[in-house]
Amino acid sequence: MHSKTSVSHIKGVIPAMFSTFDKNEQLDLNRARVLVDYLIREGVHGLYITGSTGEGFLMSDEERKTFAQAVVSHVNKRVPVIVHVGAIGTLRSIDLASHAQQIGADAISSVPPFYYHFSGDEIYRYYSDISSAVDLPMIVYNIALAGLMDNSLVLRLASIDGVCGLKFTGTQHHDMAALKQELGPDFMIYSGCDEMATQGLLAGADGIIGSFYNIIPDTFGEIYQLCVNGEYQEAFEIQKIATSFILKAVKYGHFGIMKQLMMDTGIDVGYVRRPFVHPDSQMMAEMWSFLDGLQQNHVDTHMGFISRRGK
Ligand code: MN9
Known about the structure:
The protein is α/β, with parallel strands linked by helices. It is built from eleven helices and eight strands.
């Protein structure tokens, strides 16, 4: 039986896992299994699926369920799985959340309902309705930059029975630190801005959830361990190298770039769904020349995928 009261066993490096589509944009569950095994081999501490990086909003509810089912069953309890159930419409989210519970997921997570500029009360009701409908812990996902929820609303949400954690994607680390202090050690905060993961951990985050942990789980495994040991300076040196890669990739539309980089280095995770654009060969050549440059400038980039190219 799952405990609805805590996610304190879910910490560390948690990829916002890619969903896997073939060239015709159809779900490809075999590719998902390959990705799961690779990430677990790399030592990640959990998986976060069908969120923004997972192109969850570009999938039908049936596809989201099929994908979640395949991942949870293939993971087979090796690491905790968090299923993102966010949608515009409480009934849809409850349906996805109930499904997550049925298949044995460890936790659910959701962005607030978006597009209509719902009021604070409506957002509160959204989370409390989902939480009372299922027996799984909820991790609220606040993309601070989207401006949908301020900290006082996040604090209200944290009082809902079943809300046990927060994924904070933003750059206001003093806000993250204040929330952590206010909510206490048992309420888990996950930093969502990969280019500032070290800063997030320094601000008190218990874990990091993000896109780039698909491709450089090794780098952030090192960073996380250093931060746990209090060696923030060393962590930051590695973070700087990773950040230069992240910022470059973000500029090119990072999901497609990352998927192609993974394909180029032996982990075939397939393609993005339209309207995301898969990078063309010129873009990839530019990316690889940037990465070759990084490798020349650093004895160790701490990014294992670069040297797997062509092997
Ligand atoms: O929180 C991701 N954020 C969004 C997860 O998708 C909005 C991050 O992992 C970013 O993709 C990453 C690059 O900006 O930090």
